[in-house]
Amino acid sequence: MENEVYLNQYVKNIQVASKIIAYFEKNQVSLRNAMKMYKSFTKDENRHLYSQVHALVFETVRYQNIEKRIIHHQIQNYFPKKIPDDIRITLKIIIYLTILAPPSQQDQYWKLACSEILESLNTRFSVTIFSSLLEYLNQWKLENYLEQIKDSEERLGVEFAHPTWLVRELKAFYGLQLTKDILAANNKTLPVYLRLNLLRFEKRSILSQLKEEGVTTEQDPIMDDVIKVVSTDKPLPRLPSFQEDLYYMQTRGSSLISHIINPQREDIILDACAAPGGKTTHLATLQGDSGFIIATDNHHRRIQELARKIRVYKLNSIHPLLFDMRIKDPFRIAFDKILLDAPCSGSGTFSSRPDSKWRVDRHQVKWLRNLQLTLLKNASTLLKKNSSSFLIYSTCSLLPMENEDVIEQFLTKDPRFELKKQKLYIGSPSPKFPLAQRLFPHINNTEGFSIFKIGFKST
Q1: Helix or strand holding residue 451 (H, E)
Q2: pTM value?
Q3: Active site (catalytic) residues
Q4: What is 252-456's CATH number, 3.30.450.20, 3.40.50.720, 3.40.50.150, 3.10.129.10?
Q5: How far, in Å, CA of 112 to CA of 125, rounded?
Q6: Cα 412-413-419 angle, rounded to 5 deg
Q7: Alpha helices, DSSP H only, in 126-251?
Q8: What is the pLDDT of residues 244-255, one digit of tens each?
Q9: Where are the alpha helices (DSSP H) in 299-451?
């Protein structure tokens, strides 16, 4: 009886995950927003079951290129037209669980649940092809499958579950081994980092409360206000310390950018693409909330989120402004320091946002490159003309098209500027610009970032 209860729950989890992925595909929302549909499908508040569904959804989408290939070769020919969406998505989940999931997810109940669902599909369509799929998967070997793919970049894309165009771009710039390392890291879970709210709380008291709540942490070796979560008894958002705003969940690379800027109390700062506000609030905190920060964004909902964060953290030095930085000369004042964390493909964030890699293509990246160059040109006109002022151009992308190409075009068209040495340097130098730094997931335990410091040439 107990085994039957377990099996039914596993079947239900697959069905719920299928509905969430269907919602994600149909409505073109992010996986994170799609997961909010979970409570619409079940009243179960068990966190463990939620985690199972979360893993099914995110990991199935992460490896969808392999799943699509198998469905196309093994199932599609049996359907006179398109495979119904609910069947196609369910098959993707079953393929993930059978051949792609880690051993921790390949227990007997998952296997029994997959078998039961496939048998029900056989009955529904009066065929046996779905049982044949399970037989095929039980004999499937990745190395054998890869041997059939002649194009080397396409083969890498299948091996590491990335689009072929992206593999080509990375390999051309970084070489084969580093590209493999990047692709492999994108399929792994990154450590969670917390940026402590030292403006309102003492570090000792924050760490003490986290310890009492069952959170084991490790101090970051570079940044005093950043810690790594080693383990936790409960999800962080459910802890009193999180609800009391003792810290902000922020990637290590994102926190590093604020420390590179190193804002001083008297600095007038522009955060040119600020929302949702993680770096903005960090800059204000490092200034002791005694400076002057203008934070712009052209997205109404995102600027509202920034305004909410300002209220939550009780910050007075940030002035949010709904504004499009594609407009030239918007301010009559000049700034000591400017942060342009430009809109990008997010190719450095595929570990936590696996859906992004399937939604962006080379044409979109070209469009983003043109936007980034426009934003950089306009932002640079607002920089104070002295030796101590500078602009940080950063992206959470590892693609040279959005980084080196943009910087090269900018410096060529405006020879007044040059790249400067950065205050903190923990990453790897850009192959084209040694003064720039790049953070890699497999090296720096953070999402991929590209960071450039730009200032006026010394006279």
Answers
A1: strand 449-456
A2: 0.93
A3: 396
A4: 3.40.50.150
A5: 20
A6: 50
A7: 129-139, 142-146, 152-159, 164-174, 176-185, 203-212, 240-243
A8: 999 999 999 999
A9: 300-312, 356-359, 362-380, 404-413, 441-444
